[in-house]
Fold:
Amino acid sequence: MSIPSPDVGQIASAGGPAGPRVLLLVPARTYRAADFLLAAARMGLDLVVGSDGALPLGGRQVIPVNPADPEASARRALARAGMVSAVVAADAPMLPLAATVAGLMGLPHNPVEAVRNAADKARQRQRWAAAGVPQPRFEIIPAAAPVGTVRRAAETVGFPCVVKAVSLSASQGILRADGPAAAATAAARIRRVLAAAGRPDREPLLVEEYLPGPELSIDGLLAGGSLTVTAIFDKPAAPDGPTFEETMLVAPSRLPGPVLAAAIGTAGQAAAALGLTHGPVHAELRVDGRGGQARPAMLELAARSIGGLCSRALRFPGGTTLEELILASALGRPVPAASHDPALATGVYMLPVPRSGVLHAVEGRDRAAAVPGITGLTLTIPIGQRVRPLPDGDRYLGFIFAEAGTRHEVEQALAAARDRLRVIIHPRPANMGEQAS
Structure:
C-alpha cells in the first residue's frame, strides 16, 4: 500500500471553519504543506495561509509574503489575516517571519534572534561552547580566508574532520576530510555549492571534529522553555563520510535508557543556549563512545520538526499526527510526551539521489511496496527534473515507510524495498554543463 499524499486543493476547500484562527506560513518549496493543511482540517481550525509562491489551494486566497523582508511581510499578514490565535511556520524558511508576526500580535513565540541562531551552524557552535553544551571541537573559517587557514583549522581540530556550510540543511554542503589537502578541497567544493544555492560569498565555513559512534535524532516541542519529546529515531546506517546524506531512521531507539536521558538533556540544554523557548525542535546527536563512556554530543539543532515526509513514520495515540501536535502546542494546548507501542516499530528510508542528471524513471515501485512491512512509498521529485546528489543537491528522491513488530524487521523491510527499486537517471547533454557521476 502507499501513504496517499493529501489533495491540498480538496483540504483547502473542505468544510467551513469552526475552531481557532491560525496563520500558517508555508514556503512554496517544501514537502510539508499538505500534511499541515490536513492536520488543520482535522482539528477544525480556521486556517489563513501565507506563502512566498503559488500553492494549489483549491481557490483559497494566499497572503503573499517574502521571508527576506519580514517587517513588510508581517504588516501585510497582520492586515490580511486579522487577529489569530497562533502563528506556525510549516518549514525553516518561514521561521523568522513567524516569530516576527507572533511578536507583533503578542503571541508566545521564539525571539527572532534565537531563530536566527538555530539557522546558523557557526552561531550554534559559539553559543553551545559558551554554555558548556557537549559538542565536537570546531573552528570557524572566515569567508575570505586563504587555503592555508582552512588547512591550519583542520589540523587544529584533528583528523578526520568535517567541513560544513553554516546555512544549509538536509546534509547539503557537508564533507568529511581525512587530511589538510582534503579539507582545502572540501572547502572549495562547499563554496561552489553555496554559490549555486545563491548564498552570499561572505558566509563563513565550519571545520569540526568528526565524532564516531551511533547517531540519533530527537524531536520535541518547547513550551515556556520546557521540552516535551515527541520522537526519537536511531540511524542504523549512520553516515561516516565523505558525504553525510541520511537514509534510514528507525524507532524506538536501541540505545540504553540512561544514554537516551542524557541525549534528551543535552538537546534541551542546546535549545536553551540558542534562546529557543517555544515550538518544535529537531536535534541531531552522536554518542561518542571513546574512552569507554557513552557521551551524547550535539551535531545540529533546528527550530522546526523533522524534515521531509519523515513525520509520516510517527504514530501517536488516536491517529494524531506530528503536525496536529505542533498546531496544538502553538495554540497553548498540552502535548503528551512520546509513548511508543512496544509491539510496533516504525521507520522511514530517505531515497538519496545516486548521481547527477535528469530523472527518467524509478522502476520497481510495485515490487518495493509489496515487501512485507512496507506501508508506503512516495516519490517527491517529478520525472523529467534535473537532480544532483548530496552534498551538491538538496533533495531526496522520495521516502519509503515501514512498520513491523521489531526494529530489525523494519530495517530489513526498508532495505529490501530499496533494493527492488531501479533509479534511472540520464546524463545531461554536454551543453547543459554537469555530467552524470
User: Anything to note?
Assistant: The two ends are 33 Å apart (CA to CA). The chain has a mean pLDDT of 90. The longest helix spans residues 257-274. DSSP finds twelve helices and 19 strands in the chain.
